[in-house]
Structure formats: structure tokens, C-alpha cells
Amino acid sequence: MNTALPRRAAAEFIGTAFLVMAVVGSGVMATQLSPNDVGLQLLQNSLATGAALVALILALQPVSASFNPIVTLVERVLGVIGTRTAVALVAAQVLGGLAGTIVANLMFSLAPIAFSTHQRSGPGLWLAEVIATAGLLVIVFGSIRSRRPDRVALAVGGYITAAYWFTSSTSFANPAVTIARTITDTFAGIAPISAPGFIAAQLAGGVLGLILLRFLYPADSTTLSVPADESAADRKVLS
User: Fold this and answer.
1) Which CATH architecture has domain 4-221?
2) b vs e for 48-72, b when ≥16 Cβ sit within 10 Å of the residue's Cβ?
3) Does residue 15 contact residue 67 with C-beta atoms inside 8 Å?
């Protein structure tokens, strides 16, 4: 029996859960420690998130470490993974994100599910999500093209930490994380009514990022490290 897909799905669930715990938990901690300084709260939140990303990617990369439906969908378009794998990984990411938010809420003695009242909407924020997501794809796949997969974790963690500050949206850049952040009424939350606009912008950023990748690396095989027992269909790489 091929156990690669269940293991990959589990890694995506665990990784996304811990990523969201870092985002939500550090946001709550920041508001408790620095209640009157929003800038310092954002600094604390961004550093915790970036550091968690580096650690999680380094630990789970040998199995699966996308933690983002946009990255997974681009992998599918590029032929890195098959449709069945993509569906399973995206489902694991969304469920993992929701689980991470619930655990983070509980760790700080909050209601496990509390829909956010923090509305985030407007053309500037949507444009920021397009840019943040497109940039993330260039960072991820550009780092992979360097043939040094050990660089991916540092590149992604560093980019997300920076993007917290140079984008007006604080760089969600991830539909699974966006959905997860709707159920916490804390510093990191986003109102459910605002989530569709963010997700639409992230999908648009995914398309832009894919166009940039095709332009920048037209003759390169864009591939990721896959487990040794991955199915033949999921080994296919589009040249």
C-alpha cells in the first residue's frame, strides 16, 4: 500500500495548524504584552510567524511543506503533483488551519470559535494580497530552481516577515490561513465577510505569480523534492 499521500496530507495538516497557531497565538500574546503599541504588536507577530515558517519548512520539507493552497495549485498546474494529491493537500491545509486557530484560541482561554469582527476590505488591501501572493510564488519556486532546497525555508520565512511590513494587508497570501483567521476575534482575525475578497485577490496573485514563473524560467523544470515512494503520476514534471 502506498502511504505517501496520507503522510503528505498529514504533514500539510500539521504544518498549517502550527503555522496558524503561530500567527494567532503570537497576535494574542502581542496584544497582552504591548497593549498600547500596535507597531510593536505587528513586529512581534511578524517575527513569530517568520520564525515558525522557517522551522516548520525545515522539519517537514522531506515529506511535504507547502502549507498553502495557492502553492499546491501552482504545483498542480506545473505538473509537479496530480489532481488527487492536490485535492488531498488543499483539504488538509484548510482543515489544519482551522484546527490551529481553535487550539490557539483555547491556549489563551478564549472561545474555541469566535468569528472575527476585524473587517479588512478595499482596493489597496486586495492589491497588497495580489502582490504578496505573487511574490511568495517567485520566492518559493525561484529558491527551488537554485537546486538548494535548504534555502527555501529561510527565503520564505524572511519574505513573509518582510511582507508583514511592506504590504498594507500584512500579507496573508494564503487562502487556508485566511479561512482559519475568520474564527478568531483577536489581533490576527479577519471578518468572514472580508475573507472572499482576500481569497479572490490571492488567487489572482497566484495567476500573476505563475505568469512570472513561466517568464523568468521558461526552459527550467520546476520541481519539488518528493518522497521516495511518491506515485509515478505525481513525479511528472512539466518542462
Assistant:
1) Up-down Bundle (1.20)
2) bbbebbbebbbebbebbbbbbbbbb
3) yes
